[in-house]
């Protein structure tokens, strides 16, 4: 049919409360973009179908999320009727009345992550927040303790004359003066003016530098717990505390840690191992509480609290005895409860004999060697690790799982340490995990993992082949060892002995060949193994034998076209014909970007391919997103231009359904809303979000659940084509601007999705409110 039609902005009521769209002839000279009845047919399809699920997804394209551990809590402060608490990289407050925890971050206006000290200035209704960098935030709060305006002081952080760490460790206040114990000395802060009044450095014997862990005021003296012991000076206006000669060393009982010294109500106490709590009286230490099992000493505003194995004790007796106690760092009393910042168990609320863990959900730690993808919607964070010469790091046991927007911690004592690899097997719908010393495990993504094989103890890498069989790298530096295993679908294991056994990573190509990166400690390079014929091909940086840009291979991935991408200490290489790896001369090619070999000179530490076959490349200096062949740079992220906590990338994983990109760094875990996801086999359950688009939204609208190479058209209610794009895998995005760069106006927009063959199509609508 040659007639062309324009969709009018007209609605007519129909029996079930829906709408119909009227089509009229559009003159040939009209300036609007016209559609044939083919388009109108898909618009009508929208009226009757419910393919589109309208919701606001958490993984918004272009939006960052931090994923700190809230179990490693370090400091706590009672603020009005709220409890503020900070972990190594996280920050939150807890409302005891509502029993709710609220996360806080840089997005809320705070200077950075890495809080080391909290102190509430109750007379000013301001919370002093000290950071590891030396930065200070002064947070104003409401009468109910809600956060308000923030004033930032950067004088310590920016002081060029102070070298090394500027971490703020502790705070003692008298009047308007706050004495900040720092890694380089003591800073006196006027909290009323928000100004640094004085700095005391080099307080050790003969003016040597010292780290100051804490300070205390007692017995007309100021005490400093330092890396050179307990120091004291007379606390009087006539004494120059900046002069090291005025500070004297105070002896401690044998075995007493300087970090167990606390000040309470103008008195000084210390924990003496094997004895108990001692008070400084008349120039000597006197035991005032016998507690032979004492491990440390904390203090509230009014009393000392002694720590022992699984218990807290106060002067009047046992405060708490519970195995949930790990390593208490600070304690405060408020709202009828004691609140403990515990570096292993998070924020604990103690009310009588009842203990409640109240930290928000998050991973159990901040450092992960590997990330992996489980069932759809699940990302596994694996804390274990091993060295280049194949020695276990013996990190914490268990692992963490991100699922449906929440973290779940698997920390049971039955689990081994050093989980370093995981792979999902769609055949039996179980996720398999390998421990570097604890064997092979599996779980159904809900219950505790179960051991599969502990005889095959040391596993560095797992891969699942199309038949549902599990391949294991079980590395060894010794020659002639069986260092590749396969678990058949029926259960038994079979062993193989390729030429080299120092295997760090294993992937499977489309021919069933095993590609392995080898230990740089043992000479580096790669090997390819054919388990059907027991052939091995070693690949190095020599021409004809791989021609890698460097022998040290740090990452491997197979892309959606079956090509093998290799990350080395000198950039990228690609094997574009993996099936021919055993025949004759083999050379990788090096993609060229900006007239240079791709990332030449960079150490490529992580590689992953998204649903659009684009390459996410992690290096020691940042994260890159390139197009499918590595010739076009789409994005670059570093710690300077993004919320990445470090430019050093440890690993990357992409949740396939949403395209959310998870990035592990030495300073913590974050995720980024990617613009590509795994394509769907057919149109079903397509999502458009956010919907409606509200006035304060400035991001990308996503259309997900598409088949590969879907053409997506956005049309306004008047029938004009506003935007057209092609999906990246299963996702297409719209920046809410038309072809001329003009922002979308308030109204209803129609979304058409047409499969590459043109025979399938679905439609939806999107409301925009400006």
Task: Name the descriptors.
single chain; 770 residues; mainly beta; Immunoglobulin-like; Methylamine Dehydrogenase, Chain H; 4-stranded mixed beta sheet; 4-stranded antiparallel beta sheet; 2 helices; 2% helix; globular; disordered N terminus
Question: What this model shows, in words?
Answer:
The chain contains two helices and 71 strands. The chain has 770 residues and is mainly β. Among the domains are: 139 residues, Sandwich (Immunoglobulin-like); 74 residues; 245 residues, 7 Propeller (Methylamine Dehydrogenase, Chain H), CATH 2.130.10.10. A hairpin with a 6-residue loop joins β41 and β42. 45% of the residues are buried. This is Transcriptional regulator. InterPro entries: PorZ_N (IPR048954), Quinoprotein_ADH-like_sf (IPR011047), Reg_prop (IPR011110), WD40/YVTN_repeat-like_dom_sf (IPR015943). It comes from Larkinella rosea. Pfam families: PorZ_N_b_propeller, Reg_prop.
